[in-house]
Amino acid sequence: MTQPPEPPSAAALDDDDAVRQQLITGLLKIGLATRHRAWQGGEALGLSPTQGQVLVLLLSRSGKSTRIGDIATELAVSQPTASVTIRALLAKGLVERVTAVDDKRAVDLRLTPSGRDLARQALGWSDFLLTAVDDLDGAEQAVFQRSIVKMIRAMQLRGEIPVSRMCPTCRFFLPNAHPHSPQPHHCAFVDAPFGDRQLRLDCADFQPASAEIAEDRWVQFVAAR
Ligand code: SF4
After folding, report:
1. In this prediction, what percent of the chain has a pLDDT beyond 90?
2. Taking a C-beta distance cutoff of 8 angstroms, is the pair 147, 187 a contact?
3. DSSP code, position 165
4. C-alpha of residue 178 to centroid of ligand 1, in Å
5. Which atom of ligand 1 is nearest to the CA of 173?
6. What's this model's pTM, rounded to 2 decimal places?
7. CB within 10 Å: which end of the chain, N or C, has fewer?
8. What is the pLDDT of residues 42-78, one digit of tens each?
9. Does 203 sit in the ligand 1 pocket, CB within 6 Å?
10. Long-range contacts of 152-158 (CB under 8 A, 24+ apart)
């Protein structure tokens, strides 16, 4: 198990390493609280945390083709773990197999009506994070969102988390298309400007940009303030 870093002494408050350690301590505390709530929330619904995550994922992908491989990729779990979880959810009558719309030989997974109900309840366990985010004002939320996007991209590039369907790697993302505006970016899909606070991390309309374009747009995004 990851051990929390040693707390720095007050004398080290200006030290860069101490600041980084404090950030890591904060992230670990939030991660710990999140895991605890996920266990509590799942237990109350008779689900393991992974089962709860699969239900919520299927809810967010309603109307889209979803196979076991998609679930393993999105949740960063192994294919056997995804298969075992799906088998349990099938046995509970929360998920069903249907013929894939795009390939009659393939099988898609989708929620049953009771699975949909439970998925909506499982979503509720993260409400405590919503309350914490609501304590930030708009400017703080924008800085936080931008920081999260940068951290997620760095982790994606190192293969530490699955690729997110987020704005900076989307072909519709035009960073800093409206410089000096509170909404400097532009989404070409909906043809509308937006700011850092509205950056999407899991957008249903996302389409990946080529690696070259994504890199170019990322440089423009990071340069924009
Ligand atoms: S389509 Fe979605 S991910 Fe792409 S730029 Fe627009 S809001 Fe962002």
Report:
1. 51
2. no
3. -
4. 16
5. 5
6. 0.74
7. N
8. 788 888 888 998 998 999 888 788 999 989 988 888 8
9. yes
10. 152/201, 153/218
Q: From the CA of 172, how far away is ligand 1's center (Å)?
A: 6
Specify the residue with its C-alpha closest to ligand 1, atom 3.
167
Instruction: Give the domains, in start order, of the chain with CATH numbers.
Output: 1-135 (1.10.10.10), 137-223 (no CATH)
Coil, strand or helix at 202: coil
Tokens 């509970």 belong to which residue?
92
- CA-nearest residue for atom 8, ligand 1, is 167
Kindly state the average pLDDT of the residues 199-215.
91
Measure the CA–CA gap between 195 and 188, rounded to whole angstroms.
Answer: 14
Q: Name the pLDDT band for 180 (thresholds 50, 70, 90).
A: confident
Alpha carbons 98 and 47: distance in angstroms, whole number: 23
For 117-144, what is each residue's pLDDT tens digit?
A: 999 988 888 888 889 999 999 999 999 9
